[in-house]
Write a structure and sequence with these properties.
Shape of chain A: globular
Largest sheet of chain A: 2 strands, antiparallel
Number of strands of chain A: 3
Mean pLDDT of chain A: 78
CATH topology of the largest domain in chain B: Rossmann fold
Number of helices of chain B: 21
Radius of gyration of chain B: 25 Å
Helix content of chain B: 25-40%
CATH class of chain A: Mainly Alpha
Radius of gyration of chain A: 27 Å
Number of domains of chain B: 3
Strand content of chain A: under 5%
Low-confidence stretches of chain B: none
Strand order of the largest sheet of chain B: 6-7-8-3-9-10
Number of domains of chain A: 1
Oligomer: heterodimer
CATH superfamily of chain A: MetI-like
Number of strands of chain B: 20
Number of helices of chain A: 15
Mean pLDDT of chain B: 86
CATH architecture of chain A: Orthogonal Bundle
Largest sheet of chain B: 6 strands, mixed
CATH topology of chain A: MetI-like fold
């Protein structure tokens, strides 16, 4: 087949994007890629979410330099701060009923929240993915048992479970890291079933794909099939759940703190605890002790939710909006497979 | 006589992540009343987009230019491209209707077929329940559903695939539209059923005077049904001619190439005979690579339902270097046999010896010595590669698994050789599977199957997901490699013409049983079994004159129940 219009047409022989030189690698990173892909409202949501999330992380990482005082500091060079002082030049956000500086506690609280989020999400991913992979791949009674347990945990009110675990793990005592781990692990138990179910469902789907069959025909061992073929194809949706769970983790941590199962105020700053201590202030007109920690919780959770939701929309081609042209434009894609098949012989 | 539909300079582009892409460019077509216009072309040529534009069914991401003017039976005209949604809904069903490719996904499983047919009636004016039911029964009778009075209350799952497609056609017919757009109406069906549906469409055109736009990639179907043919290539119509002229004297280069690529029955007989001549002495007594005796495979039933027997008491052998073609319709058990040979499906009865290993009751470890001597090529090249590995890594996988190379990088030299053997440029090894076309992927799949230099290759419908022109090249490559490397092969296909091209011997499966086995000349030249004869007669050939004769043969052979 040497027809000129067949062999001559098409650009499909050109190298695909990932081979077209260097410098473009960062454009394919998970979030950056989506950012470039998005348009309109979805882009607005994603950018807003990213700005809030980055601000939260910067605040947490730089708490040491940003916060004017320590989280448990009661006195400055001029003596005691005093309780329930309104916002002033010395204390921008005022002081709490316990005499702490509100601004400092909000900033240090970001650090606590970040630690909890990282530990909680990491441990639930590891446990959830490993269990999901084994359960989905091998199936059988282990699978059925694990699904049953996951469903049971799922059906439990998550905050109640977290409270129970906070008591079991920390036994009421809490240092800074003890408190962080107690909170993080109690959140982990709530989250593991989510990761487990998502990964297991994907594994069950991927297991039936032809490329896994083709590995089995070769006599590939289970371990290699699981790690090389199944696992990487099953965890694509995880970044979405991670962002959504991160915000949920912040809310759960705040909930625990508010109910008094969080971290002692002397061990670390924690927004939920501060909010709880500020309940009585609100009725007596002292607004600053409740407003700022409350805002911090809302903003941090919202930032991560926005990122998660917009990533979720962008991941689904049906929900993703694209810029539309009014005119018929663009080139006819070289879809012909004849064009780029490098074949010497004649067909007939 | 004015046209029922005239498409004028139609252009469609889609907004995609990579910017706008034009699917159709400057297409002008005309459909006259009572005419069957076939639009042919390979996948991606814009034929389905054109068809959908006739009904205004393009998704919201599409931008359309040009005009598609429909003329109703009463003479009113509508330009589908520019009218409002409400007007479009009026026109759909009444002036133009659509028959889709996959009948089982078009019908809603929770409603009776009668209700789904009546839905169209009720969308266009007030019709009483009784009247709608009467019309539904009538139209079901028209499309040849037996006992329409009773079947009208049945649900889609109670019908066979061919009957479902008849019901979809009935839904399209119920408002007596002037034009029916049929998008690959027989692609999802078996050949024998396809012949029946084509017969039905032909009868409808003659009886009701409905014009049909037939979208297809199958030149045999075109030869069977069409009056006029438009050939599309890369979004444009390259040739438009009456069917006889197109087949006897194609003008465009592309049309010629397309027609040349269609496999025809009878081409492989000479080749098979030549191969048999060249066999060494004593070849007939050589130890076969596959020997099946009374092979039975059942799938266990759930919840106390009886188990399903997919393969029933099948016996055959494949000698070294021999190609056995396994043909049958969907559900005949051909893929099950292929998977059983590869150890993917357990054997439940009889004996299946593959390369000296007994597969009945075999567990993973005992098959380890057999594995590297067997290659497998899967049906769908799109899913048989791990999307996260490059082609080179995928092809290197067998080498790494069987310890011929420590890492995919170390195997790269051998991989490059293999890619060249299947005529892919070395640089394609660095690409990901989705960056290759279907034909290229299937070549890579072949390279992977041959990586360990197997004695036996199992190919499960390796070309059924490909366009004809690509299929021709892959088959040619396959023949070359087989002659060069001399592996034995089980080639599974539903297409008799493809099997004929490659196979030394052909085995015909019907409902899990082996009904006929022999050389291509025996099975296709003078079939002994009724089923084989029917299968042969159902296969449309890409030649309108010859096909008209074949149709007559088919009519005499067809089972009385379907007439």
């Amino acid at each position: 087949m040497t027809a000129p219009e067949i062999t001559g047409a098409g650009t499909a022989g050109a190298a695909p994007e990932h081979l077209r030189g260097r410098g473009a690698w960062f454009k394919r990173l998970p979030v950056v890629h989506q950012l470039r892909q998005s348009v309109g409202l979805q882009r607005g949501m994603l950018v807003a979410g990213l700005v809030l999330t980055v601000a939260f992380v910067v605040l947490a990482a730089g708490a040491r330099w940003i916060a004017p005082y320590g989280w448990a500091q009661l006195r400055g060079p001029d003596g005691m701060f005093g309780a329930q002082q309104p916002p002033s030049a010395d204390h921008w956000f005022g002081t709490t009923v316990g005499g702490y500086d509100v601004l400092s506690r909000v900033v240090w609280g970001a650090q606590t929240a970040l630690f909890v989020v990282v530990v909680a999400v990491l441990s639930s991913i590891v446990v959830g993915v490993v269990l999901g992979l084994l359960s989905g791949y091998f199936g059988g009674w282990v699978d059925r048992l694990l699904v049953l347990v996951a469903d049971a945990v799922y059906a439990f009110p998550s905050l109640l479970l977290a409270i129970l675990l906070a008591i079991v793990i920390s036994g009421g005592q809490s240092s800074m890291w003890g408190g962080i781990f107690a909170a993080a692990l109690s959140i982990t138990v709530v989250f593991v079933p989510q990761y487990f179910r998502v990964v297991r469902a994907e594994v069950v789907r991927v297991k039936g794909e032809a490329f896994v069959d083709s590995a089995r025909v070769l006599g590939t061992g289970h371990w290699r099939i699981m790690t090389r073929h199944v696992l990487r194809n099953s965890i694509r949706t995880l970044p979405l759940i991670v962002t959504l769970n991160a915000s949920e983790a912040i809310l759960t941590l705040a909930g625990l703190g508010f109910l008094g199962f969080g971290i002692e105020p002397t061990a670390a700053a924690e927004w939920g605890y501060d909010l709880q201590r500020a309940v009585a202030d609100v009725t007596s007109g002292i607004w600053w002790t409740a407003l700022f920690p409350g805002l911090a919780i809302v903003v941090a959770a919202m930032g991560m939710t926005l990122v998660g939701e917009s990533l979720n929309d962008l991941a689904d081609p049906r929900l993703r909006s694209r810029s539309r042209s009014k005119q018929v434009s663009g080139k006819v894609a070289a879809t012909s497979v004849v064009a780029d098949d490098q074949q010497k012989g004649d067909v007939a | 006589m004015s046209a029922v539909a005239s498409i004028n300079d139609l252009a469609v582009s889609f907004a995609t992540d990579a910017g706008p892409v034009r699917a159709v460019d400057g297409v002008s077509l005309e459909v006259r009343p009572g005419e069957v216009l076939a639009v042919v072309g390979e996948s991606g040529s814009g034929k389905t987009v054109t068809a959908k534009a006739i009904l205004g069914l393009l998704p919201a991401t599409a931008t359309t230019r040009g005009a598609v003017v429909l003329t109703a039976r009463d003479g009113t005209t509508t330009d589908v491209v520019s009218v409002s949604g409400a007007r479009l809904r009026e026109v759909r069903g009444r002036d133009v209707a659509m028959v889709f490719q996959e009948p089982s996904s078009v019908l809603n499983p929770v409603y009776t077929v009668g209700r789904q047919i009546a839905e169209g009636l009720r969308a266009h004016g007030k019709v009483s329940k009784k009247e709608a039911r009467r019309r539904a029964i009538e139209v079901l009778g028209t499309v040849g559903i037996p006992d329409p009075e009773e079947r009208v209350d049945h649900y889609p799952h109670q019908f066979s695939g061919g009957q479902k497609q008849r019901i979809v056609i009935a839904m399209a017919l119920v408002l007596n539209p002037g034009l029916i757009v049929a998008d690959e109406p027989t692609t999802a069906l078996d050949v024998t059923v396809q012949a029946e549906i084509l017969e039905l469409l032909r009868r409808l055109r003659d009886d009701t005077g409905t014009a049909i736009v037939l979208i297809t990639h199958n030149m045999g179907v075109v030869a069977d049904l069409a009056d006029r043919v438009a050939v599309m290539y890369q979004g444009e119509v390259v040739e438009s001619a009456p069917v006889k002229d197109l087949f006897s004297d194609p003008q465009a280069e592309y049309t010629r190439a397309l027609l040349g690529a269609v496999p025809r029955i009878g081409e492989g007989v000479a080749r098979a005979a030549a191969r048999l001549e060249a066999r060494p002495e004593g070849w007939h007594d050589a130890e076969p690579v596959v020997r099946a005796e009374g092979l039975t495979i059942t799938y266990p039933g759930r919840f106390r339902q009886p188990s399903f027997t997919a393969v029933d008491d099948v016996s055959f052998t494949i000698r070294p270097g021999e190609v056995l073609g396994l043909v049958g319709e969907s559900g005949s058990g051909k893929t099950t046999i292929a998977r059983a040979i590869a150890g993917l499906t357990p054997v439940s009865g009889g004996s299946l010896e593959v390369l000296g290993a007994q597969m009945n009751g075999a567990r993973g470890r005992r098959l380890r010595t057999m594995r590297p001597r067997l290659g497998f090529v899967f049906q769908d090249p799109a899913t048989s590669f791990n999307p996260l590995l490059t082609i080179a890594e995928c092809v290197a996988e067998p080498l790494v698994v069987h310890g011929r190379a420590r890492t995919p990088e170390a195997a790269r030299r051998r991989v490059d050789e293999l890619l060249e053997a299947v005529q892919l440029p070395r640089s394609y090894g660095d690409r990901f599977p989705h960056e290759l076309s279907g034909g290229q992927r299937q070549r890579a799949s072949l390279a992977r199957g041959l990586a360990l230099d197997p004695e036996l290759l199992v190919a499960d419908e390796p070309t059924s997901a490909l366009d004809v022109s690509v299929q021709a090249k892959v088959l040619e490559l396959f023949t070359e490699l087989q002659a060069e490397l001399g592996f034995a092969c089980l080639f599974v296909s539903h297409d008799l013409a493809v099997v004929d091209l490659l196979a030394d011997r052909i085995a015909v499966l019907y409902r899990g049983r082996l009904v006929e086995e022999g050389t291509g000349a025996e099975v296709l030249g003078s079939p002994r079994e009724d089923y084989t004869r029917r299968l042969l007669a159902s296969l449309p050939v890409p030649d309108p004159v010859a096909q008209a004769e074949r149709r007559q043969t088919w009519e005499t052979l067809a089972e009385p129940s379907v007439r």
